[in-house]
Amino acid sequence: MSQTQSPPTPDYEVIVIGAGVAGIYQIKRLADLGVNATVLEAAGGLGGTWYNNRYPGARFDSESYTYGYSFSKELLEEWHWKEAFSGQPENLRYLNHVGDKFDLHKYMQFNCRVDAAHWDEDQNFWRLSVSDGRTLTCRFVIMALGLLSIPTLPRLEGMADFKGRSFHTFDWPHEPVDLSDKKVAIIGTGATAIQVIGEIADKVGELTVFQRRPNWCAPLNNYDVDDAEMDRIRKRYDEIFETCLRTPGGFEHEPDRRGFFEVPREERIAMWDRLYEEPGFGIWLQNFREIFTDEDANAEFSEYIADRIRQRVEDPETAEKLIPRDHGFGVQRVPLETNYLEAYNRPNVHLVDLNDGPLERVTETGLRTTNADYDFDVIIYATGFDAMTGAHDRIDIRGVGGERLRDKWRERISTCLGVFIHGYPNLLMPNGPQSGSASTNYPRGIETGVDWCMDFLEHLWAHGYDRAEVTAAEAERWTKHVEQMYEVMLMRKAKSWFTGYNSNVEGHEEGTIRYLVYNGGMPKYRKALNDVAEAGYKGITFSNSADSIAEKIA
Ligand code: NA7
Question: How far apart are the CA of 236 and the centre of ligand 1, in A?
């Protein structure tokens, strides 16, 4: 007969990596249960996206009242959103308010970048190396790393030689940047650049936009939320969140379920005229579903938006340059804009089409294309992110047998529900690649993911398990499903972060689709989560290290 040896206790039961919207709610739920948990955050404060992106014009594209957390009635009652689509400073204030209200800061450690996370098969826990030199151990690691948290810069020569100021929009300085009377360049015309350009066009000396591919965009139609409007919103909160759970995108916008070609053209146009004037993503998500799947329907609607561009941009040549030709409306993430197109009507705003001559290098005084040299005081890189897997790749994550996640995902991104990875026990992602969060109203997906992970952990703790891992078969089932979803979507043909494209990251250039997002919409994603839970966490193997140690020495 042998005695059971107690396994060593890790420093924490749970370590959450990232103090953004997901990490904040995740630690709230863990703290409520009294779990020994902490959050490690690389930045100097909480907020994630809203801590970092301080560029002018940074704001929600989701209605503020559908973006905020839904978990606390008291919070919903007391918070007054000042704008329908709230700006970064207010968003960060909100998240700090949540942190203060629920006393969460005490669980968070800032300026702590996690460099490595290694699974220790003998001890049955994770060992994390932190940038401050510490090694911390935990039974479970929860990745709340954010979708777009690794900014990427062009691979251009001479970037360090530039004598003026330059920064990626993600790293916009925390102190105010005076752009008045300055000659400013902005590279990129994605959702970020479109917000920046609309905001700064009338505040800078000269603004030159370097555009490689134009992006379809639509008006944000933002408005102030006064006391009366906020009262109306508060009364509707239950209904708002119920609707968000029901709609594919997790918004109040419900797709028009009539067949595109069954509705007479005049009626289609009348509907688009109305949606174009309405706030938010309605023009994208309240539209006919064929916009996403049918070439002809998409082409007709894209032509409608092209005409809107021609109406709003005075110079016909500039207008044509702003109309995308290589993809249709809505197959990439649609940027919402305020005064973006009108910016090009200003004499101090210039558009350089990089199709006429690509960027060659950065010089000491500005930018050189194959056609010309341009002098600038400031260069703004609005050049996007190593989306979704980028933040995982930056951590040396090693699972069973020392396998590196970076290597595994280089071959093929594979998860189960976007929550589990085969070969990486006790690692959870409430909003990971291939989860429902990425393609939907993010915080709605986050609350779903965090709640599900908490149920999962409680199940595990209640049964005395301390090791859980998804089977290869279950991960394959989900990954195949995610891949198949792309087949019906026009988005599979677009060069955007939805398909894992990024010209600035080796291996992510044009050519292969990287299956990053689950495209089935929120209700189907929630059903998939519930089905797995209701089947007793089918496809997850559970064990207890004390038992296995007893077995080993029996
Ligand atoms: P995006 O949408 O990835 O846009 C990046 C933009 O930068 C896009 O216009 C790119 O052109 C351009 N880009 C990137 N690299 C280069 C180089 N090397 N030369 C010229 N132009 C370049 O990122 P955003 O930050 O705007 O938006 C990200 C998300 O934030 C958005 O989807 C929302 O969810 C919020 P390209 O199209 O690749 O030709």
Answer: 36
Report which ligand 1 atom has the smallest distance to the Cα of 169.
25
- With contact defined as beta carbons under 8 Å apart, do 481 and 529 qualify? no
Report the alpha-carbon distance of residue 30 to residue 454 in Å, rounded: 8
Distance from residue 471's CA to the centre of ligand 1 (Å): 36
Which two structure tokens, joined as six digits, stand for 396? 């040396």
Residue type present at position 116:
A
Q: Which atom of ligand 1 is nearest the CA belonging to 212? A: 39
Residues with CB under 6 A from ligand 1: 148, 154, 187-193, 212-213, 333, 354, 359, 382-385, 497, 503-504
pLDDT of residue 1: 39
Say how many residues make up the chain.
Answer: 554
pTM value? Answer: 0.96
What percent of the chain lies above the pLDDT cut of 70? 97
Containing 39, the helix (H) or strand (E) segment is strand 37-40
Q: Residue 16's closest CA among 150, 143, 199?
A: 143
Confidence of residue 5 (pLDDT cuts 50, 70, 90): low
* Count of C-beta atoms within a 10 Å radius of residue 232: 10
Q: Are the C-beta atoms of 498 and 439 separated by less than 8 Å?
A: yes
Which residue of 50, 55, 359, 383 sits with most ligand 1 atoms within 8 Å of its CB, as the best mutation to test the pocket? 383
Ligand 1 atom showing the smallest separation from residue 147 Cα: 34
Q: Which atom of ligand 1 is nearest to the CA of 151?
A: 25
Looking at ligand 1, which residue's alpha carbon is closest to its atom 2?
190
The domains of the chain, with CATH numbers, are 12-46+104-149+387-492+520-553 (3.50.50.60)
* Pocket test residue of 67, 150, 192 for ligand 1, highest count of atoms within 8 A of CB: 192
**Residues 286, 255 contacting (CB under 8 angstroms):** yes
pLDDT per position as a tens digit, 167-221 = 999 999 999 999 999 999 999 999 999 999 999 999 999 999 999 999 999 999 9
Amino acid identity, position 456: F
Residue 534 burial class via C-beta count within 10 angstroms: exposed 0-12, middle 13-18, buried 19 and up: exposed
Distances (CA, A) of 262 to 259, 283, 330: 5, 19, 21
Report the pLDDT value the prediction gives residue 526, as an integer from 0 to 100.
97
pLDDT per residue as tens digits for the range 499-523: 999 999 999 988 788 999 999 999 9
Q: Is 136 helix (H, G, I), strand (E, B) or coil?
A: strand
Cα–Cα distance between 203 and 197 in angstroms, integer? Answer: 10
Supply the residue whose CA is at minimum distance from atom 27 of ligand 1.
191
Residue with the nearest Cα to atom 25 of ligand 1? 384
pLDDT of residue 551: 52
311-364 per-position pLDDT tens digit: 999 999 999 999 999 999 999 999 999 999 999 999 999 999 999 999 999 999
